Structure formats: C-alpha cells, structure tokens
Amino acid sequence: MAQIQSVTWPPSKARNQAAVRGQPIDAPRPKANSNNPPAARPAPDRSVIFKNKDTDRDGKLTLEEYLHQFPDQAEGRRRFPTFDTNNDGVLSEEEFVTLGKR
After folding, report:
1. pLDDT (tens digit per residue) in 76-88
2. Cβ atoms of 100 and 83 closer than 8 Å
3. Which is more confidently placed, 41 or 56?
4. From residue 2, how far is each of 5, 7, 88 by CA, in Å?
5. How confident is the model at residue 21 (pLDDT cuts 50, 70, 90)?
C-alpha cells in the first residue's frame, strides 16, 4: 500500500483568511466579469495624419508624401491607387480620410 505524503504550504495570509471564513483553500477563483471588455483604442484622426504627411502644405498627397514613414512601402504602393478615386495621381484630404470610399 502506497503512502500519501502531506503537503506543507508556506505561510499565506490569503490561505489563513480563507480558512477562517471556512472557504476551501484550493477553491478556484471566480471568473472575471466578461461583460466589460477592455476599452478599444480610438480610431486615428486621419485628417491630422493627412496634414502631417502633406509636407509641402498644398492640400494634396503625392505618392512620395504618402509613403513617407510608411512601414511597408510595397503595401503603401498597393493602397495608394485604391484611395485615388479620381485617378489624378494625388490624394485629396477627402480621398485620404474616407479611404477612397464615398
């Protein structure tokens, strides 16, 4: 017959309080309230981004201005024409802010 060894836990204020309240020491913690999901980050203000990218302040973004500090240049080159709804080779603030959708 195998012997069962007893387990000795280090001192713990939480375990002592649970024992005083008559709660099982190894009881699982209650689940977190899932009705309050973490707050979503606000959408970036695309008008502000446009103004920061429009380095010559002419109210239009060239491909070069659009790609400035763009993390993936190939992806930027792919996106640019999808925003340019009038196919004039530059993005107006409206085209940039609405992502080419009207």
Report:
1. 999 999 999 999 9
2. yes
3. 56
4. 10, 16, 84
5. confident
Contact by Cβ (8 Å): 46, 97: yes
Read off the amino acid at residue 28: P
pTM flag (> 0.85):
no
Instruction: Map residue 51 onto helix, strand or coil.
Output: helix
User: CA-to-CA distance for 39 and 85, rounded, in angstroms?
Assistant: 34
Question: Which residues, 6 or more positions from 99, have their beta carbon under 8 angstroms from its beta carbon?
Answer: 46, 82, 83
d(CA 49, CA 42): 14
Residue type, 65: E
Q: Which domains does the chain show, CATH number per domain?
A: 46-97 (1.10.238.10)
Average pLDDT over residues 16-41: 75
Q: Could you tell me which of 75, 46, 58, 99 has the C-alpha nearest to residue 67?
A: 75
